[in-house]
Design a protein that fits this description.
alpha+beta, five-stranded antiparallel beta sheet, 2 domains, Multidrug-efflux Transporter Regulator, Chain: A, Domain 2
């Protein structure tokens, strides 16, 4: 049985955040932002409730909105104005999304190289003659380049 790639798992049901839905009261409790403030942010277009098929009146928000509210609140606590906090949070979320997509593209599994578990980051060159591996040790990333034909044990 072939193993699903991390991207397939992330976009599928295994790591999906699509079903993480929070009421306005829950978002308020989790972030420390009042429901009144959340409604104000919503009126300004800074956050948006999820569309509901059942057309219930209660506002619900997704995980991405939870992250956005948390970021805005954190920035405000650091002294940012609301507008600047919204802008900075949007920039950080876009950067995180870019990093996530890059890592999903680069990651080719875990391989055992020289008796060490390392991330297989795929081919280093267009000719597919070298493969790049990496691991984190003591908060420092170490890289290893090996000829493509050299054996590495996949996990």
């Amino acid at each position: 049985m072939e193993r699903a790639t991390l991207r397939e798992a992330a976009n599928g049901k295994i790591f999906s955040t699509a079903n993480l839905i929070f009421g306005i009261g829950q978002i308020s409790k989790m972030t420390g932002v009042s429901t009144r403030q959340l409604r104000y942010w919503e009126s300004k277009g800074y956050i948006e409730p999820k569309k509901r098929a059942d057309e219930q009146a209660q506002r619900v928000y997704g995980y991405d909105t939870f992250l956005r509210v948390s970021g805005i609140k954190s920035m405000q606590d650091e002294g940012y104005t609301l507008a600047a906090a919204v802008e900075r949070t949007a920039a950080l979320m876009a950067e995180a999304d870019g990093i996530r997509n890059f890592l999903l593209d680069a990651y080719h599994g875990i391989a055992e190289v020289d008796n060490q578990d390392m991330l297989d980051l795929g081919f280093l060159d267009a000719e597919h003659t070298q493969r790049l591996y990496a691991r984190s040790k003591d908060h420092h990333v170490e890289y290893l380049v090996r000829p493509a034909g050299e054996e590495a044990t996949g996990k």
